[in-house]
Amino acid sequence: MSDRFVFKGTQEDIEQQFNVRTERSDFFESHFNITPGSRITVVYQEEERKIYQFRWGLIPPDAEEERAGNENYETTLDAIEENEWLTECLSKRRCLIPAHGFYKWKTTEKKSTPFFIRLLSNELMAMAGIYSIWKSSTGRDVYSCAVLTTEANALIQPVGDKMPVILDTEQYTAWLGEDQLDEQKLNRLIKPYPMSKMAVNRVSEEVNDTDNNNPELIQPIPK
Fold first, then answer.
1. pLDDT in tens, 70-129
2. CATH, residue 109
3. pTM of the predicted model, to two decimals?
4. DSSP the chain
C-alpha cells in the first residue's frame, strides 16, 4: 500500500456497484491525492448496508484526539492477530473503501518515482478495510478506518512489496457480513489481486505535493 489514493466516480455508478443509496451527493466528490487523516467515502454494514464518510486512520480507543489515528491508515492480517482491538474490528466491523486507484513510489538511492496503480478495466476497485467507532470528549461518535494490505502481486512488486486487499463484487457480501470469517474464508479473501487485471503507470512528481489535487496527477508519462 501507500499513503495516497484516488477516489472518483459518479454517484450513480458507485451506488450501483456497491448496492447502496444515500441523499448525500457530497460523498462523491472526486479527489486525486487523498492522504491519511482525510474524510473518505466508505461502505459498511450495520442494520443495513450504508455509505458514509470516515476518517482515514483508525483512532485507538484510548486516544485523546482524532489525529492519533493518522498513522493507522493501513494494517495487515498479522498485525491484526497480535492486537485484541484490531481483532475485534476485523471480527465485527469490516468495510469497503471505493477507490479509482492508489499511488506507490519506487525508491532508489538517487530518487523516488511515483506510480499510479489501477484496475485494467479502469473501473472502481473496492479496498478491504476495518473500522472503529471512537467517542470524542464531547460525546460525538467518530468513525475511522484502515485499509487491509497483503503482499504485492508480481506486477506491483518492482514498485513495492505491499498492496491493498482488493475484492471483487461477488465478495462484498461476505466481507461486509456480520458473520465472523474463519481462517479458510479469510485466506480466500485476503490475497494479492490478479496482476492480469491491473495496470501500473508512472505519473508526474506533482503528486508528491499533497496540496495538488487534479486529474492530471494520474495521467501516465513515458518511463
1. 889 999 999 999 999 999 999 999 999 999 999 999 988 888 999 999 999 989 999 999
2. 3.90.1680.10
3. 0.95
4. --S-EEE---HHHHHHHHT---S-GGGG--EEEE-TTSEEEEEEESSSEEEEEEEESPPPTT-SSGGGGTT-SEEEHHHHHT-HHHHHHHHH-EEEEEESEEEEEEE-SS-EEEEEEEETT-PPEEEEEEEEEEE-TTS-EEEEEEEEEEE--TTTTTT-SEEE-EE-GGGHHHHHSSSPP-HHHHHHHSSPPPGGGEEEEE--GGGGSTT--SGGGGS----
